[in-house]
Design brief:
This protein has about 180 residues and is an alpha+beta fold. The chain is built from five helices and ten strands. The strands form two sheets. It has an eight-stranded mixed beta sheet, sandwiched between helices. A two-stranded antiparallel ribbon has the order 2-3.
Length: about 180
């Protein structure tokens, strides 16, 4: 069942709380509040997989492997009602792993990634993710939320609230996950 999570109020610069409304009216600088409702889907069978796949592919500018949502291991999917932002959380060694976090190109750089990360961290204070070293925007965002990162097998692996005995095996496991975007 889908659950709407209202994110807690945060002290965010006003510029991050408003987004230009594109494609409406005369384009004279209309603004609207950034949508703070994040939908949580724990049962993948109830997820609109076509919209979810499109959101991931458009956010990354790459194609998602066929059957991504049917391969198992997905714990939860967070997304905005219009799928402008989406995050896929998987289980790796009993640790929540943020497998995908994608923001639509027109919404990037406006605070939506931060909103999604706040929702994810609220639900999963202990988690991991990996990012391509060349993805500077993603690495900058993740550095705000993860106090620890390490390069491994061509990835920057980020970890939050893992114990020292979990860290090594988790980094190895996450860095070895096959790519799912091409």
């Amino acid at each position: 069942m889908e659950k709407i999570t209202k994110l807690p109020a945060r002290k965010i610069v006003a510029a991050q709380l408003i987004v230009p409304v594109s494609g409406f009216g005369s384009g004279k600088g209309l603004i609207e509040p950034l949508n703070e409702r994040i939908i949580s889907v724990k049962e993948v069978c109830k997820l609109d997989k076509k919209k979810a796949a499109f959101a991931i592919e458009s956010g990354f500018g790459k194609n998602l492997v066929s059957g991504f949502f049917s391969k198992g291991g997905i714990m939860e999917v967070f997304h905005t009602p219009d799928f402008t932002a989406i995050a896929v959380i998987k289980d790796v060694l009993d640790i929540p792993y943020i497998d995908k976090l994608a923001i639509a190109p027109g919404a990037q750089g406006k605070g939506l990634g931060t909103e999604m990360m706040n929702a994810i961290i609220s639900a999963y204070p202990k988690c991991m993710l990996r990012a391509s070293p060349g993805n500077e925007a993603a690495n900058a965002l993740y550095s705000k939320f993860f106090a620890w990162s390490e390069p491994a097998n061509g990835w920057n692996v980020f970890a939050r609230n893992l114990s020292m005995h979990e860290m090594g095996p988790a980094i190895a496991a996450v860095s070895q996950i096959p790519k799912t975007l091409f």
